[in-house]
Design a protein that fits this description.
binds zinc ion, 7 helices, alpha/beta, seven-stranded mixed sheet, globular, 22% helix
Amino acid sequence: MKLTIIGCSGSFPGPDSPASCYLLEAEGFRLLLDLGNGALGALQRHIGLYDVDAICLSHLHADHCLDLCSYHVVRTYSPRGPLARVPVYAPADAPRRMAAAYGMPDEPGLETAFDFVPLRPGVREIGPFQVSTALMNHPVETYGFRVAHGGHAVAYSADTGESDGLVELAAGADVLLCEASFLDQPGAPGGLHLNGRQAAEHAARAQVDTLVLTHLVPWFDHARIAEDATRGGFDGKIDLARSGAAYPLG
Ligand SMILES: [Zn+2]
Ligand SMILES: [Zn+2]
């Protein structure tokens, strides 16, 4: 299994990265976790435009889902199209919300390009992957993911405040992609996002090998977020996410 970070910018695209998107590949199958704004462009540096086999959307905030509208254009109107529908695992409201974002009526919405499957907490097979989902601590219905294959696992926090569910989901994973949207300073609202220290605390409790700090918001100094993470009691490897960085596992 191989993880490639396509987009790791928090809340909106930054100068060096699109918003959230992570590519997981195994046995020739390509799964995307989130498809935030700008991600479809950078994705084409790594795989062909038509090579996406399944998409998981953690939640329906724009920075995690909006390029699904652009990808609908690709699958529906390309000179090669129309192409086979791609399964999209997403919160139940996704068909209606994505159709509205595109400016389509609810029927058929984006269903010509995508086969929407409502997410629930639990475990399912997607291609060669075993994908576990759990609700995170965010103001809207939001799922964290654990993607396992061949004895290795990548966990992804999506957007979340402090969450025991995230610790459980990430337990023993090779890599935890954990959001660190805030600076570690007083006054941050609860139940929304984590800071670098809290991300490291979750990584320590979950006993993961590598913590990748992600969902990095352009208006903050990311070196400061990495420094905050050194105070979280985590003694594994800590990386700052970077668009284009790849993690081969096994
Ligand atoms: Zn976000
Ligand atoms: Zn969000």
